[in-house]
Amino acid sequence: MKTSVGIVDDHQLFLKSLGLMLKSFQVYDVVVEALNGKELQEKLKESQITPSIMLIDVNMPVMNGIETAKWLSKKHPQMKLVALSMNDNDSVIIDMIKAGCCAYLLKETHPDELEKALHEIHTKGFYNADASNINYRRLLLTDKDAVAITDKEKNFLQYACTDMTYKEIATAMFLSERTIDGYRESLFGKLKVQSRVGLAMEAIRRGLVTL
Amino acid sequence: MKTSVGIVDDHQLFLKSLGLMLKSFQVYDVVVEALNGKELQEKLKESQITPSIMLIDVNMPVMNGIETAKWLSKKHPQMKLVALSMNDNDSVIIDMIKAGCCAYLLKETHPDELEKALHEIHTKGFYNADASNINYRRLLLTDKDAVAITDKEKNFLQYACTDMTYKEIATAMFLSERTIDGYRESLFGKLKVQSRVGLAMEAIRRGLVTL
DNA sequence: CACCGATACGGGAAATTTCCCGTATCGGTG
DNA sequence: CACCGATACGGGAAATTTCCCGTATCGGTG
Question: How far apart are CA B158 and CA B162, in angstroms?
Answer without folding.
Answer: 7
